Each structure stands twice: as C-alpha cells, then as structure tokens.
Amino acid sequence: MGTERGGFSVLLLIVLCCCFGGKCELQDSKPSAQTEVPTGVELFPNELDEAQAFPDEEKAHLPVFTMDYARIQVPFEFTLWVLLASFAKIGFHIYHKITIWIPESCLLISVGLVVGAIMHAVKEEPPAVLNSDVFFLFMLPLIVLDNGYFMPTRPFFENIGTVLWYAVVGTLWNSIGIGMSLFAICQFEVFGVQDINLQENLLFASIISTVDPVAALNVFEDIGVNEQTYIVIFGEGLFNDAVTVVLYNMFTYLAALPVVEPTDVFVGTARFFLVALGGVLFGLLFGFVAAFTTRFTHNVRQIEPLFVFMYSYLAYLVAECFAISSVMALLTCAITMKYYVEENVSQRSCTTIRHVVKMLATISETLIFFFLGVVTITTEHEWNWAYILFTLLFAFLWRGIGILVLTQIINPFRTISLNFKDQFGLAYGGLRGAICFALVFTLPDNINRKNLFVTASVAVIIFTVFIQGISIRPIVEYMNIRKTNKDVNNINVEVHTRMMEHVLSGIEDLCGQWSHYYWKDKFKKFNDHVLRRILIRDNRAESSIVALYKKLELQVAIGLLDGPMGDLSAAPSIVSLHDERKEATRPKKKFLAADVRKMQDILSKNMYKIRQKTMNYTNKYNLPDDSRTREILIRRHASIRHSLRAESFRELPSQNIPKSQRYYSLQPGRDLETAFALRRRSHGGSGDVEHLSNLTPRSSSRSHVPMRRLNTIKETGNTATSSQPHSPPPGVDALDRGPGSLEGSSPQGRKVLVPAPKRRLLDQVDSGEEDPADSEPVQPPHLPPPGGWAPENQDPRANETLLRDPSQWSRASGRP
Amino acid sequence: MGSRASTLLRDEEIEEIKKETGFSHSQITRLYSRFTSLDKGENGTLSREDFQRIPELAINPLGDRIINAFFPEGEDQVNFRGFMRTLAHFRPIEDNEKSKNAAVSEPLNSRTNKLMFAFRLYDLDRDDKISRDELLQVLRMMVGVNISDDQLGSIADRTIQEADTNGDNSISFNEFIKVLEKVDVEQKMSIRFLH
C-alpha cells in the first residue's frame, strides 16, 4: 500500500512536470518562431518551418535532434489531462473507505483545485478547450449515452409517470421559482446586480436547477430505499438533463431578445413539447434502424460495437441540427437500441459496448469536474456576496418545496407512495453536477454578467457536492438508525425476518404486482409478432447440442473464475454429512454477548439484501454488479448438474429424498462442496465433450435431457455428435422422475431467465412443444416426432441468449 | 385479456374463492389474469416450470422453496384454487377480521397461518421441527460466499439455542411462534394487493 501510494505520487509529479514543461517550451518557442518566420518568408519562400527556421548564412545540415512540440500540442495536452484525471481516480480507490464517505465528484474537484493552484502559482493558463461546441458535441453525448444505455428499463417504464413528473415539472418549477426570486433580489439596488434582466435570471436559474443525484444514490443503496424511489431519483437525474438543455437553449435565445412578449411565452411552451416529442421520435427511429442493421452484422463481428456508437451519435447530431432535444433523442435511441442489439450481437461485442460506453462517459465527466477545479482557481471571478448567497438559498429552498409539493400531488397516483425519507433523499440528494458547470461555462459572451454566473455556479456546485455530498450519509444513517431498534440478543429475529422479506418479495414478483398488464401485454404482442421478427436475426442453430452446452458451461465457468466467486473452488470445507451425525454429541457452546453481536454483524453484512433494497445498476462509475445473481444462479446450476449425475444418487447413503425435496437447489444433506467438486471435474480442460460421451448411458441420457429442455435440440438433423443413446435407460423408475422434471424445470428456467423479463412471456408464446416434453420426462429420447422439434423462432434466441451473461439479463431487469 | 379471463372464471367459483380466501372480486379477477398469463400450456394449471419462468423468482435466494410452497405434497400441478389458497396467506389482516376470533375457522391469513407458511419453508421433511441442518440450508441460501461454514454453523447453533426451550436441538412450531412474538409478522408477510 505504501509503495503503491509512493509510486503513484511520483508518477503524478512526473506527469505534472511534463505538462508544464511542455507549456513552457511552447511559450519559449513561440516568440522565436514569430520573429523568424517573416525573414524566412522573404528570403526563402519555400521554407516554412516554424520553430526551426534555417539561418541563411550557414550551410543547411541535417539536425540530429529536433523537437516540434507545437505540432502535437493539442492532442498531447488532452491526453495528459485525461491521464492525470485517471491517475486521480486510481488514487482514490487505493483506499476504499474514502469513496464511501466522499463522493467521487468531490475528489475529482479537489484534485482539480490542487492542479489549478499549482498552475496559478506558476502563472499558467488552463488549456482553453472547454467551449460550447466541444461540450455539446463531444462531452455531453457521452454522458447521456451512458445514462441511457444502462437505464434499467422495466422499473423505469413502470415509474415513467412519476419520473417525468419530477423531471419536467420539477425542473420547470425550480427554474422559474429560482429565476423569479433572483430577479426580485436584483431589484434591490443595494446588491448591485440590477442590470441582470429577467431572461438572464431565468437562464441562470435553469442551469442551476440541474441535479445529478448519483452520489446520493450510493448512500441510499446501503441504507435501503424502496426500488421505486430509487428509480425515481435515477430517472429524474437523467431526464432533467434533457429538460435543462432545452430550457437553456430556449432561454439563451430569449436572453438575446431585447423584449419578451407574452406570445413568446406560449410559443416557448409549445416549442418545449415539440422539441421533447421530436427528440423521442428521432431516437426511436435511429434505434430501430440500428437494431435492424445489427441483424446483418454476424459476419463483421469486430465492428459491431461501432454501430451502437455511430447510430447514437447520429441521432444526437441530427437532432441538434434541427434544434430538437438531442438529449432525448440520444436517450430514446439508446434505450430502444439496447434491447434488440444485445440479442443480435455477439457476446464479446456486448461486453465491449458496455465497457466502452462506461469508459467514455467516465472520461467525459471526469474531465469536466477536473476542469471545474482548475477553473475555479484560475479564472477571474466576480464575487457578489448577495447574489451568490441568495442563489444558494433559493436553490435549496425551491428544491425542497418543489419536492414536497410535487410528491403530495403525485402520491395518490402511485402504488407505493414516497414517504418522508424518500422525499428527503430526493431533495437533499440534489447535488449539482458536471452539466451545470459546463452549461454555465459555455454561455455566450454577450451575457454581460457571465463571470458572476460562473462564480455563482461554481460556488453552488462546490457547496452542494462537498457539503451536501459528504453530509448526506451521516444524516441518512442517523435517520435510519433512529427507526430500527436492534434487539441485541435475538439472532432469530434477524434471520427469520430476512427470510420473510425474501419470501414476500418473491411472492410479489410472482403476482406481478406492479405492472400494468394491459399495455404491457399489448406491447409484448406487438413486439413479438412484428418488431422481433424484423429486427432480430433469425439464426438457425448451427452448432451441435454438445457444443452449445459446452458454451454454457464455459460461460458459467468464466463467470465463476472471473468474480470473487473464483475463490469458491477453494471454499473452506463445508459441513459434510458426517458431521451432521456427530451433532448430537456436540457439546452445547456458550455464546457470549460479544459473539452474538459479531454474528449479527456478520449476518447483516452478508445476507443477501432483498430485491427492493439493492440497486447495483445505479453506481455511475462502475459497471453493474451482478455477483449476487451469479452466485445464486451458479448454485442452482451446479446443483442441477450435480443431481443429474447417476453417481450422485448412488453416492448418497440410503437417503430417500422425498420427491418434493428434489426441487430444491440445495438439497438436504447435499452440500456445496460436492456440487462444485463435480463441476470442477467436468471443467478439466476441454473435457466436456469427452466427459459427456464417457458417461454411462443412464447418466448421459439424463444429462442430455436438460439440453432438450434448452430447446437447442430442435435441430435433430445436424447433430453430428449424437452419441446420445436413444434407448431409455433400463432402470428408470419413479425415482428418476424427480430429476427428470428437475432438469426439465431448472435449466429451462435458466434458459428463459436470461432474456430480459419483457421478453419472458414471449419465449413461450409460440411454443406448445414444451408441454408434450413436460409430460414425458422419463423417456426423453422417445419424445414426439421431429415435427414437434422443428426449429422455430425461439431457437436463435435460446442459442444466443444462452451465451448471454446472466448479468445482462439481471441488469436489464434491474436485479443485483 | 381481461374479458377473456372473466368469462373463463365462473361467478360461482369466484364466490367460493372469495369465501375461502377473503379476496375481493376484483382482486380475484386480477390474479386470475396473472394466473393465465403464467399458464403457458393453457390447461388451467401451473407447473413448476411456469413458476420458474419468472426471472425475479429465479434469483430470489429462496425461489425454489417459494415455488414449492404452492404445490401440495407430491403434486406437480396447481390449479387456480390452490394458487389462490397459497396467496391468501399474504393478504393483509384487516381490522374487522381481528375481532372475529374463533367465529370461523381461522382465516388463511391469520398470524398463525402466516407463521406456519414461513415455518414450512424451513421444514422440508414436514416433521414439524426445524433441525439444525434445515436451518443451515436456508441460511446458506440466504448468505453470500464470504461467510465460512464454521461461522454459519455457529450462527445456526446460536439460533437454535435461542429458540429451543425443550432441549431437542431443533425448533418446533410453538418455539418458532414464541421467538417471533415481537415481530410484526402481519406486516412482514402481507402484500397490498391492488384493488
């Protein structure tokens, strides 16, 4: 740790020196170049070297060492900046605790401040790269693409009313409220800001009301906020970017006008809606085109990710061209596109897309914050106590009141109302972010008090990010702790209540409580019959059953090794069957209160939180974390495979597992270790194919059964490796009926788990074949004639979706 | 979808279900439409596969057990009555029901029945006792990989110790009820079914 930090700081210093060294070099060479060139031009019109003008008296000789900094200056400095910001990020994560208490934006701004201070000390100017065009054409789309691509669609659409309500009406409320109040303040002569007219105030207010609640979300994740609230906060942050940009453009235009008439207000409102809807339409159009294109890209897998980016960017630019809301266009495009594209493209492209999107967005945002820090020190500020303090006050006030009022209005329409804790989170978590700064920095220069605005925004941002950002966690924890009373001596309560919570959330999911069936079903039917047929590539299964199953195993194996689960194979010895027998003789342990507390601690940290309390997709700086889903699915899968082996049933001492219990993913007396031991065996190198064919007839047929269930078996024709015996194993009796249905159910369950929940019902719309198969689990090879197994629309999805990381689905559904 | 559902469910049936479970007419209709949308085979019953198709249930740590709770012992299909009967456990206890104590046979959503539902999730072999092994099973399912088995074993031991009053090293149903007496089970095991 120490050497890491040491090395890191040395690196940082070196980078900084290069940065400044380069600049100084440039400054030195500039004047010389300028004086040289004129004479050079007169005498030697052909030679236009700038820094190295040849003196005309000497004989020209080949220079051994030249340096042409000016040529590379811009890209070089850009790279250095990005690198510097990235080092800063590495630095934060070296010590984990920091990021818990301090939001990342804080840290980035701090580093920016430090660099700015250094630059100020050596009288440097920050590179003047952040202008309007660069921001709007390059940085904003990246941030928005990230937001749109990782948006969890199902919870979002279930709450879309509330989200839009807060985003649109809330932002309008804030902007107009703050604008009006500030204008009222401006009327007082004593503050000295009379020259700011109403339009400019409104413009400034609209910039200030953009919130970026991501930092707050991380806090809420730990203390447990309702899923619905989560998505409202997340969605609001997303959409008010769109609203703000629209308002910004509108008000900039208005600010340029000398006089504002009432008709302009109406026109403005009409324009607002036109712009928003137009953006959505554009986005949908480009999204569908992108999806359609990816249908044909199976031969050019390497450039598949490109389509995602190019189409989104196109959507953005075209919308900009027509002055429609480009942010909305991009968001809609990303959401639409993701659903279909992720089915068409290969697994690797999928991963690439996600990583690159995250990467670009992080760069963009990091740079903006960093720049903020630097600019804070190096720009000339105009400080006006009154204006700035009132801005802070009004920003806070109007947001708070706004949230309260809006919630009161919308709560009756919601299935889960937002309680006080949620509202507090919404209001207090409204930190201002990168977009706010960028918008104000790129104001046109004809706004006469631009410097004041910049100063005020910087002040608001720094205040909210630092003070609110750091304090939100303690406050929320305090609020939360007050409500729960921990009964020190009762572990039972903890375990059983958590169990009940899981059950409850399971039953809720089962009942499909929160979906509005009618529209959802209509959309599903439309999607299935029309959209999917057009947009998704119809891929006949070409690979054999075994290869496919192997891929699935590989998939899960990679997942196993990749994450923290990689250690599972080295798991400590699990209580085996034998220990159970010794139980009666085990002396009763005495548990001290300290032990109990420790246990409670362990439990609360390690028990899976129920669905409603964890939101892993909202951490902006990381990819969604799906380790929990993987653990659960792997456990199930492992024990399914485990139960397929003939040996497993013979191994068990005469334990007659009642039929009902065979369906459990972890069966009584079975333990994880044997489950994984068997898996480990099967993953010995490329042993899958051999392994499968070496199995005894009984077990091989059984292990093939899940593949049937996986619907990959539909291509009965081209199974080259149909070494599967087709006669039912002789000793199949009622005992085997259990695993038959088990394999039938679980792997199938696994298969259809993988597509996003929206598609879930689609999987089975066209398949009646499942049922004849269901009714005859005992004799798999004698299943209905090939006609029933004809390849059908489901296959490609089955094949492709098998290859999908379960995380993708879980992310799509918003599950951790 | 809505109209199709109500024509398939006869009014007498709705009445019977209403009496047995206490759901309202509209709730029953709504849940019936959910039932039919889950029922891919359209044969009026749900199998385990139908349940396992629900993605959220699959990554619920206790998913398998919840599903199994719907199926009566030894059966593989559940019809709508059975479905509703199980869901009835999760109906909130209304105030006016609390008063009629022993008037009718205990409603399905009484506190005791809710606790019985939870108890059965642990007690797989239906011997009316949660053994250490059964408890460990559920604990293991609910917990991530970072807890070693010694720790988990200790936790299970402690849990049994706390609850066990008659010294048989397992938790009986009465002990279970006793240990959860302070917990607001009515609220924890209730879903607000939309009207």
UniProtKB/TrEMBL annotation, chain A:
It is a multi-pass membrane protein. Residues 570-675 form the Sodium/hydrogen exchanger regulatory region domain. Residues 1-26 form the signal peptide. The keyword Protein biosynthesis does not apply. Residues 778-788 have a biased composition (Pro residues). Residues 693-703, 713-725, 807-816 have a biased composition (Polar residues). Keywords: Antiport, Cell membrane, Ion transport, Membrane, Signal, Sodium, Sodium transport, Transmembrane, Transmembrane helix, Transport. InterPro entries: Cation/H_exchanger_CPA1, Cation/H_exchanger_TM, NaH_exchanger, NHE_CaM-bd. It is found in: Cell membrane. The chain crosses the membrane at residues 69-88, 100-122, 134-151, 163-185, 242-260, 272-293, 313-335, 356-379, 385-406, 426-444, 456-476. GO terms for cellular component: plasma membrane. This is Sodium/hydrogen exchanger. It comes from Cyclopterus lumpus.
TrEMBL record, chain B:
The keyword Cell membrane applies. GO terms for biological process: protein transport. Residues 26-61, 110-145, 151-186 form the EF-hand domain. Keywords: Calcium, Cell membrane, Cytoplasm, Lipoprotein, Membrane, Metal-binding, Myristate, Nucleus, Phosphoprotein, Protein transport, Repeat, Transport. It is found in: Cell membrane; Cytoplasm; Nucleus. It holds the Pfam family EF-hand_7. CDD domains: EFh. GO terms for cellular component: cytoplasm; nucleus; plasma membrane. InterPro entries: Calcineurin_B_homologous, EF-hand-dom_pair, EF_Hand_1_Ca_BS, EF_hand_dom. Belongs to the calcineurin regulatory subunit family. CHP subfamily. This is Calcineurin-like EF-hand protein 1.
